[in-house]
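Workshop exercise sheet. Pairs work together: one partner reads the sequence aloud, the other fills in the structure field after running the prediction. Swap roles for the next sheet.
Pair: D.N. / O.F.
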Amino acid sequence: MKVGDVDVRRIGLGTNRLTYTREHVAFIKAAVAEGVQMIDTAHLYTGGQSEQTIGEALSPIPEDCIVATKGGIGGPGRGRPDALTAEIEESFRRLRTDTIALYYLHRVDPQTPIEESLGAIKEYQDRGRIRHIGISEVGIEQIERARKVVSVAAVQNQFNLAERKYDSVVDYCEREGIVFVPFYPLRAGRSAAVDEIARRHDATPSQVMLAWLLQRSPVMLPIPGTLSPEHMKENLGALDLQLTKPEYERLSG
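Structure field:
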């Protein structure tokens, strides 16, 4: 699938627990070597260590790899243009890059119109320093407001087998050709149906849950978080798992 102008595999890596250690720097390098092309981070994650670790591991970031980061979360006022600008500049420094491939407004600030927050991000896009813009935890009305200001490349909302309140947003993104990035894609919990289908395919429950997401919509790009090379490889294995129609419908029911 395309994220902006880059073809990427449809399972990425979430890094909200990544810390600045030698082991985690090596882990990020290994993830990219295994074929992970979408790495998701944020200014807030682990007090900045997530971005710092990715910068240490990947600078300069490979052309076929997207490092997406976010800013504007942590309380009322964090979406003000001046606050966002400060966070964007810090993300550039931590990631050791002059250009960010995808930058999300992490949350809509209740004190700042979404148009003003996105306008601050768009200034960097207009200068060529942010290539694509996304938004997170939003409904359709907010996406449509955002699209009057910027071209929305991706929407990142919580979505998994058990949490589907954004079903209509997934369908909207599919119609409009917007990448939908479900965070906490594996927070659904185990079920008898998942376990049974996993055994049938000689797969793991996590692979079944990810495969369901991939079949839910062609614009879906899950970003399961892990610090384990084994789990990272296991997650990528879901790309090769095709559920039957009855299996998919059973899980969807």
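Discussion prompt: The mean pLDDT is 97. What would you look at next?
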